[in-house]
Design brief:
There is one protein chain. This protein has one helix at about 5-40, and strands spanning about 40-45, 50, 50-55, 60-65, 75, 95, 100-105, 115-120. With about 120 residues, the protein is an alpha/beta fold. The strands form 2 sheets. A 4-stranded mixed β-sheet has the order 2-1-4-6. The protein has a 4-stranded mixed β-sheet with strand order 3-8-7-5, with no helix packed on it. It is elongated. It starts with 6 loop residues before the first helix and ends with a strand.
Length: about 120
């Protein structure tokens, strides 16, 4: 690697390195944000959106309540206890990591017609 000898050239080389590093970190953060958005379910207008979400085993789904009503995320599988959120007010979130493949239906315990499904593949 060629190292510049004059102070201006050294400064410019350091500035270019810093900008390159900053852009690289920004791209990594943006990619992580996109992954998080991909596994996000929004609760709005008394509905889960998307109603069915497909993920891979080991991934986490995050539900975000953007409705003016309170909601829950409650597994339909009462034997397994699956996943159950506390009350979610406007702006609240709930996350659950799915460790096994399968079909995981859920509902809002306050609104019996609100249903969703998490489809988890290997």
């Amino acid at each position: 690697m060629i190292r510049p000898t004059n102070p201006t050239a050294r400064f410019l080389a350091a500035a270019v390195a810093l900008v390159t590093l900053t852009l690289g970190l920004s791209l990594v953060a943006h990619a992580k944000e996109k992954d998080d958005d991909a596994n996000r379910v929004t609760i709005k207008k008394t509905a889960y959106n998307p109603a069915t979400i497909k993920i891979k085993k080991g991934e986490t789904v995050t539900w975000v309540n953007e409705d003016d009503k309170d909601h829950t995320v409650y597994s339909d599988d009462e034997k397994d206890k699956g996943f159950h959120s506390d009350n979610l007010g406007n702006g609240d979130t709930y996350s659950h990591k799915f460790e096994k493949a399968g079909k995981f239906p859920y509902h809002c315990k306050y609104h019996p017609r609100m249903h969703g499904v998490v489809m988890v593949s290997e």
